[in-house]
Amino acid sequence: MRKFGVNLSGGEFKGLVDLFRRPTIKQLTTAGLVAGVYAAVTMLLAPLSYGPIQLRVSEATTLLPILFPEAVPGLFVGCVAANLISAYGIPDVIFGSLATLAAAAMTYRLRRNMWLAALPPVLVNALIVGWLIWWQAGEPFFMSALTVGGGEALSVYILGFALVAGLKKALPKKYL
Description:
Largest sheet: 2 strands, antiparallel
Order of helices and strands: EEHHHHHHHH
Distance between the termini: 27 Å
Strand content: under 5%
Number of domains: 1
CATH architecture: Orthogonal Bundle
Structural class: mainly alpha
Strand order of the largest sheet: 1-2
Radius of gyration: 16 Å
CATH class: Mainly Alpha
Number of strands: 2
């Protein structure tokens, strides 16, 4: 199946396509755990997680698609839940969550190189959430994109790398 010039039936997105066709109980459970962790960490650290200057510690989980394709829908659902309490309202639920979904799918696609796989969450969120903050709060776009991207880079490149490395060590190979 080809859509938008991308072959979705095989190749790099095969794991994601298979996941959406007929998910297993293990895949649903993993997606649910990822969603719950993302939402809980975001909400527990709310003062850091929301606003024009933000450091979402939960964004470390955006590297989980490197290990598990089921993290992609899990991150989307977790972001929807977390953004329900955002001061930016429904636009944040819609655009912020779609940004996370797009970044997670790109991370999955680039999973063979962790440095490249970490770029989509940083760049997509800097642009989309930076735009959202400009639109909703009137903050300058460049500064919003810069502060969101900076916080995202810290979360992904430091905490996310540590999370992925720890899971690779801790989990048996059959689960990866």
